[in-house]
Amino acid sequence: MIAQGQKIPAASLTQLGEQGLNHFTTDELFANKKVVLFAVPGAFTPTCSAAHLPGFVVLREEFAAKGVDEVMCVSVNDAFVMKAWGESQNAERIRMLADGDASFTKALGLDKDTGDFGGVRSTRYAMVVDNGVVTQLFVEEDKQFEVSKAEHVLANL
């Protein structure tokens, strides 16, 4: 599993924009800025939709006030699902990224097999990434939602 002080691994993530699918390398996403990245096991799932994403939506301006350039959400879903979920959650200030084949999640060592729930998914986590290096990492225990909450991450900045 990735640890504090390590560089984000090279990978590609996808976002659906106005002109179609956009593919971004992790270098493009994390270079020369401070980013809060959080991951959910699945878009439109109960905890993710009721609490995880909404917390970051509500506190987005407070993250900016603490020097965070961008807040990103990633899930092992496709870009179409991530866009629809973001729109349904009024998350226009959160970059909704798809890790469709779980390659980024696996490279981080934060993947888990959920069986018939959805197969390979992401562990729930949040991290602070400064110029491509993880400076803080908050990984949830299975079936927990405490340390990756927006409020907890914000309090630790």
Automatic annotation (TrEMBL):
User: Start and end of every Thioredoxin domain?
Assistant: 2-157
Give the first-level EC class, as a single word: oxidoreductase
What SUPFAM superfamilies does the annotation carry? Answer: Thioredoxin-like
**Reaction catalysed by this enzyme:** a hydroperoxide + 2 glutathione = an alcohol + glutathione disulfide + H2O
The source's superkingdom equals Bacteria
The record's annotation in Pfam families points to: Redoxin
Q: Does the keyword Kinase apply?
A: no
Q: Which UniProt keywords apply?
A: Antioxidant, Oxidoreductase, Peroxidase, Redox-active center
Question: What are the coiled-coil residue ranges?
Answer: none
Q: What is its EC number?
A: 1.11.1.27
Instruction: Name the InterPro entries for this protein.
Output: PRX5-like, Redoxin, Thioredoxin-like_sf, Thioredoxin_domain
Q: Kindly give the PANTHER family that the UniProt entry links to this protein.
A: PEROXIREDOXIN, PEROXIREDOXIN-5, MITOCHONDRIAL
Please state which protein family the record places this protein in.
Belongs to the peroxiredoxin family. Prx5 subfamily.
User: What is its biological role?
Assistant: Thiol-specific peroxidase that catalyzes the reduction of hydrogen peroxide and organic hydroperoxides to water and alcohols, respectively. Plays a role in cell protection against oxidative stress by detoxifying peroxides.
Descriptive protein name: Glutathione-dependent peroxiredoxin
Organism the protein comes from:
Pseudoalteromonas qingdaonensis
> In the record, what lineage is assigned to the organism producing the protein?
Bacteria, Pseudomonadati, Pseudomonadota, Gammaproteobacteria, Alteromonadales
